[in-house]
Amino acid sequence: xxxxxxxxxxxxxxxxxxxxxxxxxxxxxxxxxxxxxxxxxxxxxxxxxxxxxxxxxxxxxxxxxxxxxxxxxxxxxxxxxxxxxxxxxxxxxxxxxxxxxxxxxxxxxxxxxxxxxxxxxxxxxxxxxxxxxxxxxxxxxxxxxxxxxxxxxxxxxxxxxxxxxxxxxxxxxxxxxxxxxxxxxxxxxxxxxxxxxxxxxxxxxxxxxxxxxxxxxxxxxxxxxxxxxxxxxxxxxxxxxxxxxxxxxxxxxxxxxxxxxxxxxxxxxxxxxxxxxxxxxxxxxxxxxxxxxxxxxxxxxxxxxxxxxxxxxxxxxxxxxxxxxxxxxxxxxxxxxxxxxxxxxxxxxxxxxxxxxxxxxxxxxxxxxxxxxxxxxxxxxxxxxxxxxxxxxxxxxxxxxxxxxxxxxxxxxxxxxxxxxxxxxxxxxxxxxxxxxxxxxxxxxxxxxxxxxxxxxxxxxxxxxxxxxxxxxxxxxxxxxxxxxx
Length: 486
Ligand SMILES: Cc1cc2nc3c(=O)[nH]c(=O)nc-3n(C[C@H](O)[C@H](O)[C@H](O)COP(=O)(O)OP(=O)(O)OC[C@H]3O[C@@H](n4cnc5c(N)ncnc54)[C@H](O)[C@@H]3O)c2cc1C
Fold this sequence. Notes:
The protein has helices at residues 27-41, 54-58, 81-94, 146-155, 172-178, 185-188, 223-227, 261-273, 286-295, 317-333, 345-356, 358-365, 381-395, 424-436, 455-474; strands at 50-51, 74-77, 98-101, 118-121, 128-132, 137-140, 158-159, 195-201, 207-211, 236-243, 245-246, 250-258, 280-284, 306-314, 338-342, 368-375, 398-404, 409-416. By secondary structure, it is of the alpha+beta class. A hairpin with a 5-residue loop joins strand 8 (195-201) and strand 9. Helix 8 (261-273) crosses helix 10, helix 9 crosses helix 12 (358-365) and helix 13 packs antiparallel against helix 14. The two termini are 26 Å apart.
């Protein structure tokens, strides 16, 4: 497997572009400074929201990645932009690192305070301040749970499409910080497409209002897009202006069963070639079909070796039905074993049950699991699946893939039983395979700590150096979420 690491040819002097952090990353000093900062801050923020109780801090030490949690020295539970300004002013004054956090469901370690210091918890800033039916926008705080926001706008006949599978527990602030995607991204795009503007507080307490309340604006650099996906390293969001669309009234869910994964991936190409854009097009491979069977979560017809879960939506029943028929034709052309369809909420939920319970079923079946959310150009998905089969033969462990086939975004799970086996070489081979196919090492979960070693593989040192320069413009002291991305 040949991967041409672009960074080898770099002429950039990376040393010059190191962030000159004024923070001393000595844990003892950070602890002392954090406690002094807490005393000073308690004059501006009520004492019960500036926390040093280890039992409470434990709940703010980790996220949903496989990485070990780190106890912060203090946590500040902010309830308004003024609290965030006060915290970031004090952090700069006392040279204390700050890690922003919302729902804590991140999969890349972005909310782990690796140097201790302060966790800035924005989950209490959860108000929906405005839903504008004419502008088709909402003004909302970053701690609002994504699912709550979606349900609220849907009551108004509106729709916020980004739907990470964690939507019952993650927050919009974390979604914007990670530019979260989800099953509906194929048709509707990811979070970035719905961020019109935002308020962010920079280290030191400076407030920045970026974006615009109009559909169009080309005035100056697009800082909204830069801050979206910045993983809490450039600024702390205190307000989000999000775009909405009218809620599509008609939806159908389909589950197509195939004899093997290559047939399923060929069906994906046929579906797209027919001009269909299902709002959801999810793939599950043979190992996962077997896992679903064993878990009893859902019955899968005999002879099924791969699944496609799809949703069609539209303005009328007739339009959706026409799309459903075309979808069925494409699947039948690839000898689908069975195609199930549901129109009503309860039945649609039943078709989703296998997909929704997949992560837990995999965890229950295998001793060890590491999941990577890689993405390849859609056309090259069959080569990805073949490459993973080759890696299975090479390493003798299980590789299982599921995910958003419409986007080419697959959650590749490396699964093994032996406690002494180390997955790193296999995971690195997955990244090499993906980069050789013209893909990316992360489609949704971000870099955080988990993938920072591999970012230069994809971007090369020249681009990393420019990204570091940008970081320094926003955060010259390097105190905001240090140790992440780079
Ligand atoms: C079961 C499960 C399913 C998932 N499915 C998906 C999926 O389908 N698609 C997907 O994209 N992701 C998915 N994820 C990953 C995760 O839910 C998303 O990355 C989500 O966007 C994180 O939001 P959060 O509120 O939990 O953020 P956190 O974990 O709290 O933080 C994530 C990052 O955002 C930063 N941050 C948090 N709040 C702010 C703020 N106010 N200002 C600035 N920066 C901030 C943090 O510093 C950190 O770097 C899943 C996770 C789980 C556990």
